Predict the structure.
Amino acid sequence: MKNVYITRIAKFLPNEPVDNELMEEKLGVINGQTSKARRIILRNNQIKKRYYALDSQGNVTHNNAQLAAEAVNALCDDSFSKNQIELLSCGTSSPDQILPSHAAMVHGFLKNGNLEINSPSGACCSGMNALKYGYMAVKSGQVNNAVCTGSERTSSWMKSDIFEDEVAHLKEIEEQPILAFNKEFLRWMLSDGAGAVLLESQPNGNLPLKIEWMEGYSYAFELETCMYAGGDKQEDGSLKPWSEFPADVWGKMSLFAMKQDVRLLSENILQKGVESLKQAMAKHNITEDEIDFYLPHISSYYFKENLYNEIERQGLHFSWDKWFLNLQKVGNVGAGSIYLMLEELVHSGKLRKGNKILLQVPESARFAYSYAYLTVV
């Protein structure tokens, strides 16, 4: 088996940053009324700026595949061109279409010759699963290099017109035309962007990061669906997919909007996260003292202090000086968030040879967690 190094890392954030007061102007108001939940949600998540692939009139400027392709292009220069890429592995929770796959569409925009592609599905962990596929391919010698991406374009899923059919239907049946909180919650949480890394078997570059190991854990065997799109959650906790509904109710129920069971999220996301963290650390026999930088993907600063407390409760200790977050500046970019965090850390000037970095990515879809442990070489 070969060693695997992250030798380049890049990002692409579309357009100008959007502050909290401009969000509703970009996404649109529903039923002609400003959101009452928006300020509460923003006060809890503490996100100050985010990016949308929308222009000043709310028109789409980039689709998801274009965002990822831009991040890949940002990796390349005269010494490494996109035509040298041997494997393209792209993760997202908001693909532009059901078929073709996300990576196929990214490849279509890159137009960089014949290569292998991989498109892991899922939510936030899909970006890490894209990384793991590239990691295993380089490690096993199947390819000499791999480019992996994590990206999201959720703004178009959150625009007001997605919900207008449902609101109109509620008026028709004389019910209050207010969206359920599980639908509105994510409108003020998610944002757009992409990150990309180049993996190679040699420690090229100025400050390469060796991937020591990667791990993944799923709790779907014991927990029901929490975050979902393309279906509706039933009273018994099961998920009924869009394909089992008549086509004329897809809009009336906003079936393709992203939704979050907030109660289930708060009850499980931190506990299972620390439980899986302890499993990964025990498997690879590392302690807190062997982690210099801890990069946990959190969807909201509401979870920051609670995560710290849960880590302490379960017998670990990560002092605050180890934590590195950038949620307030770039927003929650789902599968792309961990790439954006690592990119900022790499370019921060804080890293020194020998530093150890732990990446932790949870996904609430049905509670899965991904980990990577890196060494600065």
